[in-house]
């Protein structure tokens, strides 16, 4: 049956064309986000030891593993989270929010595991450990040399009627097995292990962090990929204050939060590269999957930033003064835009709007006509929108707008976070209303710019108008409604 035409019921009026063209031009002309001065950026990177951390992200251990650059920083962010759990639970201050921080970090680790599993689904050629010659089943009797070679392999369950046991090789360098052996963190570590077991069900391998591995799957060479010893060597250097000799414990918390953030931003940058490649290859369903993962990464970044709320106010503000963390004059962006990676990922995410014509199979009208909008309306209303060459297109366009919502939510939440952690003097929410566009700070620019996808927005507006006009008061017969 032919698709009903939208134009007789909901015509595109001349003023609507002008509005759509102006929206498109304003969306296309939105200036990229800009950061603070280079000195502040370099100080931020040196404080976090980002050059050294970036070398760990970029070092390749397995050339045939295509997505190593994407999965490795995500796994390293997870490992840094384990370190943060250790730091939080060993904090000697009586006023520290240990219990709530441990809960937040456990939840954060579970979400990170979920994202790692999503990134690893369908992975080809990751480095996997050879447990034994018997494909994951170790004999009961082993020589001394075999025991030394397999010292990181732990028995999981016995095969009925056999003297053998299925094993999961456990990382020697990761902090999670050590957290499981510490009475303060054993419960948290156990729940994280079960989260790994659950989330990695859809993958052909598991991480090898002490999870049960009841399926007896191959195990990732975690220590070779993540390099935990080198990663944990990049700790915060807590120097005592010159006059008092006081060592601020929040220094390590702030340092670790931002290392987790930067690691996930590195993964997001690689994910955007893979997403754009899949769009160019017209693999719409795979691109949509990547886009939904990107949305979840932005939500995870907001969760990481929220960890600042658990920092002690007096110690944090003391550290803030020591590190000279403050907004630039006339700006409420604070240290948010000292991160080059955050600027890059935010701008690359906003640039997804340039991919909409490619997805819809049209070119932008040089005269500003609603060509892209009309193509979107036809796709949204088509009865064959999930079939053939159209499969995955609607889901991808929906994911584009979901990512936009996640980006805006992140920056709005960041502004509120700055006010809650540093005070409202650092977050002047109404300043942007009285400033010219060229003088706005990046955070205000985020809120005042038009939608990233004006054509999709307009298409849904007209489609809604079509159904509003069609449904109520339509007394025609069913045959006329089908025409």
From TrEMBL:
GO terms for biological process: defense response; L-tryptophan catabolic process to kynurenine. Residues 5-197 form the Nematode resistance protein-like HSPRO1 N-terminal domain. GO terms for molecular function: heme binding; metal ion binding. It comes from the Eukaryota. Residues 1-37 are annotated as: Disordered. Residues 200-467 form the Hs1pro-1 C-terminal domain. This is Hs1pro-1 C-terminal domain-containing protein. It comes from Oryza barthii.
